[in-house]
Amino acid sequence: MNTLEKCVRILTLFSKTKPTATVSYITKQLGLPSSTIYRYIAMLKRSGLIEQTDQAGMYCLGTKILELAHNVPKKSVQETSLPIMAQLSGKAGETVTLTGLREHDGICLEKVDGHHAFRVSFERGTTFPLHAGASGKVLLAHLDPQKQDQIIKELKYDKFSETTITEPKQLKAEIATISKQGFALSNGEMIHGTYGIAAPIFSLSRNVIAALSISAPNHRLEEKQRKQMVQLIVAAANKITDELALYET
Amino acid sequence: MNTLEKCVRILTLFSKTKPTATVSYITKQLGLPSSTIYRYIAMLKRSGLIEQTDQAGMYCLGTKILELAHNVPKKSVQETSLPIMAQLSGKAGETVTLTGLREHDGICLEKVDGHHAFRVSFERGTTFPLHAGASGKVLLAHLDPQKQDQIIKELKYDKFSETTITEPKQLKAEIATISKQGFALSNGEMIHGTYGIAAPIFSLSRNVIAALSISAPNHRLEEKQRKQMVQLIVAAANKITDELALYET
DNA sequence: GGTCTTATTCTCACATTCTGGGAATGCAAT
DNA sequence: ATTGCATTCCCAGAATGTGAGAATAAGACC
After folding, report:
1. Which end of chain B is more exposed for a tag (fewer CB within 10 A), N or C?
2. Do B151 and B193 share a structural domain?
3. Of residues A48, A61, A71, nearest to B68 (C-beta)
4. Within this chain, do residues A80 and A40 fall inside the same structural domain, yes or no?
């Protein structure tokens, strides 16, 4: 394990739910001696990647990361998708999210909020596992079989709610269906009380590169609206796929 | 120069204006042999901090950085400031920005856009040098004298426009005035055609921790409006300072 | 004030990793 | 065929990283 890897591990320990950490916490998590961690913290602090909180001994991610994040280029998917997402969100009134794939996780690349005060909203940069929620499942369903199998094996199957799929077998069956029908549904698999519909976006070479999804409190996505929404989201995703194909030559 | 520092240097090479780079470019910029850079690129790619573009040999910052950025905690300044910024932006109709200090640069921490279609707008995470623009100058003006002198010496004095201050002496005089009057003005120092007004936000120990600023096309901030705006922005900044003091005990 | 606990820095002999010139491969354009 | 560039590999010497433990600092608790 080299320096960079250790640094990234330290940085990845911080999360929305645990935004600050002490050296002793990091020590325990990584199983490395505290003198080593102190050295790393000092290095990371020098480069601005982490900062010290007001409270002594507390550290958090630093603003240097914001600076870097500002320079992460938007991929063509994002640029192509945004106007279509805005249009869809306007028509449907609900939050529309574009989700990409990173290693074995999904990550929210873009979102356009719906106009309802009571709404579901992910932030850009939010990551989540692929076994729960419409976006995750639709991404998984259209991956090539090897990667799919590998991910299905390695998933941790955290149970977020009553409906979360926690069995590999069940997940396999589900994504087989999704792959056939071309869209995924999620009834509160990740967030209880919400409903999600997602459709895949493909590259010219027919690899999934992202998922387009719509999320809402589940009473606003019941049977009758749902059918129409599925059509809308699939149509929008296809439109993005088509537009991308034009540019990729 | 250790591994992390080299990694950060590589990552920092990418910018909004140069979002992608080849190995040979990085090699030239850092003056390190290409075999070394290839090794680093491989490491950085493995950790998700950089990604390969569609074009062979092109690299860009990776989505792992977005994930990390998502977990950078908002400081209390940000949380305290946002509602006040929104109120101010609503009243003034212009873009209001909260700027922090990072090393020798300013960095945009939060912004609330004004309602005018023709407006100035920084994105969160944008960095800029301290010699140009109202925010930079106001931050610089209220730093302790040692840091101030050091930064004044080390600044590169890029000339962004006709009015950019490029002389240390001139800058010193300017920040002396700013320090006395408690706010800074900028007539297109960073972006030609725009006008900026900024006021400092202090910690309980009376150190500057951020600057609140308003920016607009300069015809909308002429003499008459300007006086009123200065009052508004100074009042808002003071309000934030006061609210922060309540929490800091 | 005394006594913990915990944060933080430092040291140093030792181990590991990093380094970079150069050679080699592959690919695409000239 | 040739050039140019991307990329990988090799390896001995050089530079860094490592971590136990000592030492110091700074609160917290009694």
Report:
1. C
2. yes
3. A61
4. no
CA of B177 to C1' of C5 (A): 49
- Summarize the confidence of residues B147-160 as an average pLDDT: 90
Task: Give the pLDDT confidence of A16-41 residue by residue, as tens digits.
Answer: 888 888 888 888 888 888 888 988 98
Helix (H) or strand (E) holding B187: strand B184-187
Q: Which residues of A touch B129 (CB under 8 A)?
A: none
Q: Residue A59: is it exposed, middle or buried by C-beta count within 10 angstroms (0-12/13-18/19+)?
A: buried
Angle, alpha carbons A120-A122-A126 (nearest 5°): 155
Give the global pTM: 0.84
pLDDT, tens digit, 9 for 90 and up, residues A1-19 = 788 988 999 999 999 888 8
Other CB atoms within 10 A of residue A53 CB:
16
Residues B15 and B87 in one domain: no
A16, A19, A66 ranked by CB distance to B124: nearest: A66
Are B65 and B81 members of one domain? no
Using pLDDT thresholds of 50, 70 and 90, give the confidence band for residue A249: very low
Helix (H) or strand (E) holding B128: strand B127-129
Last residue in a domain, options B69, B104, B126: B69
Separation of B2 CA and D15 C1' (Å): 10
A138 and A24 within one domain: no
Q: Is A229 exposed, middle or buried (0-12, 13-18, 19+ CB in 10 A)?
A: buried
A241 lies in the same domain as A127: yes
What residues make up the domain containing A55?
3-69
